[in-house]
Write a structure and sequence with these properties.
The complex is a heterodimer of chains A (108) and B (121).
Chain A lengths: L3 E4 L2 E4 L5 E11 L4 E6 L6 E5 L3 E2 L7 E14 L9 E6 L11 E5 L1
Parallel strand pairs in A: 2-9
Antiparallel strand pairs in A: 1-3, 3-7, 4-5, 4-8, 5-6, 8-9
Chain B lengths: L2 E5 L2 E3 L5 E8 L8 E6 L5 E7 L6 E3 L7 E6 L4 E6 L8 E11 L2 E7 L3 E5 L2
Parallel strand pairs in B: 2-11
Antiparallel strand pairs in B: 1-3, 3-8, 4-5, 4-9, 5-6, 7-8, 9-10, 9-11
Classes of the chains: A mainly beta (108), B mainly beta (121).
Chain lengths: 108, 121
């Protein structure tokens, strides 16, 4: 089973700041199968980035993904008020299709 | 409108059974693999099961294998999760999600609103 570790657990930032979220895999994951989701309280998750770097439909261009192998990054270039949420990475390369524990981005 | 709507959640005693459903609309259901993902109160997301478009390919998380069974009825545009031998730790919101798959990647691109399952005496 591929274990995903996300860091930091919580990121306290201000609107306008740059956010850098990390997702590290216990073994190599094809970049084709590394995805990022955003979840706000009381809502279902929403797909942001798929294939490590491809923005899903409707994802603003301030969100970008990068990485390969075991190290992946989600970057939010300038935080908007609606971006304060929890972010999860997931690998869909091999079953079980595990999620990371999440990074909460909250307002400083 | 493209949507997924879960139903069937509720309160069940430990050791009991429950079947949750997910009705799809607005897209060609049989062309998509489907998944169930759950979230315990205050916790993160846990992937639990996948079923292929024709219903032949199935995968399960180790935490539910042997107790949960995923199935689908393409004529009814629905996917199901039969949950047996339920435990307190199965208490969660259960989401169904559609799998987008292409040469560029695979990801859960559409989610339902979730249905709450509570296992308690």
């Amino acid at each position: 089973e591929i274990v995903l570790t996300q860091s930091p657990g919580t990121l306290s930032l201000s609107p306008g700041d740059r956010a850098t979220l990390s997702c590290r895999a216990s073994q190599s994951v094809s970049s084709t199968y590394l995805d990022w989701y955003q979840q706000k309280p009381g809502q279902a998750p929403r797909l942001l980035i798929y294939g490590a770097s491809r923005r899903a439909t409707g994802t603003p261009d301030r969100f970008s993904g990068s990485g390969s192998g075991t190290d992946f990054t989600l970057t939010i270039s300038r935080l908007e008020p609606e971006d304060f949420a929890v972010y999860y990475c997931q690998q869909y390369g091999s079953s079980p299709f595990t999620f990371g524990p999440g990074t909460k981005v909250d307002i400083k | 409108e493209v949507q997924l709507v879960e139903s069937g959640g509720g309160l069940v005693q430990p050791g009991g059974s429950l079947k949750v459903s997910c009705a799809a609309s607005g897209f060609t259901f049989s062309s998509y693999d489907m998944n169930w993902v759950r979230q315990a109160p205050g916790k993160g997301l846990e992937w639990i099961s996948h079923i292929g478009g024709a219903g032949r390919t199935k995968y399960y998380a180790g935490s539910v294998g042997g107790r949960f069974t995923i199935s689908r009825d393409n004529a009814k545009n629905s996917v199901y999760l039969q949950m047996n031998s339920l435990r307190a730790e199965d208490t969660a919101v259960y989401y169904c999600a559609r799998l987008y798959s292409s040469s560029s990647g695979r990801a859960l691109d559409m989610w339902g609103q979730g249905t709450m399952v509570t296992v308690s005496s």
